[in-house]
Amino acid sequence: MPRPPRFSYAHAVHHVTLRCNNREFLFTLPAFEAFEALLREARKKFPLALYSYCLMTNHVHLLCKVGRADTLSVAMHWLSTSFSRRFNRVTGRNGHLWEGRFRSTIIEAESYLFRCMAYVALNPVRAGMVGDPLAYPWCAHRAVCAEDTERIDLSPEYLESGRDAAEREGFYRRVVAEEAVRPGASLARVYFVGRPRFVRRMETRFGLNRPDILLRRERTGASIVFVGRRPGKGPGGSE
Q1: By residue range, what is the domain housing residue 54?
Q2: Is this prediction's pTM over 0.90?
């Protein structure tokens, strides 16, 4: 299986997914608590701003901003290996915990940050686990609404969305409600999300506008464009 390419740069905003090996449903209460504790450590250890997260029973979503070009790879290696060791030690499990490397998508914060926050928060709703993300304790939705900076960081875009905490929460909740009625779409095969100009800039920056590389483009409303290799085509294009 080809290794998916890794794209990043200083101050990039990423949506990250990390999935259990063979998509097994391995996580229970102690695992959720341990992963949240490691997220708190990671925010102190690395130049990493955590804007949202959701811990599901067989995979993890993170939305974060990195301080340096190498931050994401270094931080995710530490996070995934630290959790694997703790998890296997406590459960008596052996072998690989994660299904390969993490996947990441660069987000244009100005156009897509709030929708990505909603996408992360709605994971347990779309999985049929709860009817409202507030009812799911292992995601950042409550922390965002409460502006709980012990658990998450507030992005400049979030802080600019309202004059006070109540106005910002109201704006965020409206985005979540709007996203909830849209069809769910996976970001797993997508490298960049943003307006066309942003996407073209990313293609050029990382050499993905070469004619020998096939890209998939999909309009999803509000001038948002998803870009990624066609499944099974070219290096890193298959799962």
Answers
A1: 13-229
A2: no
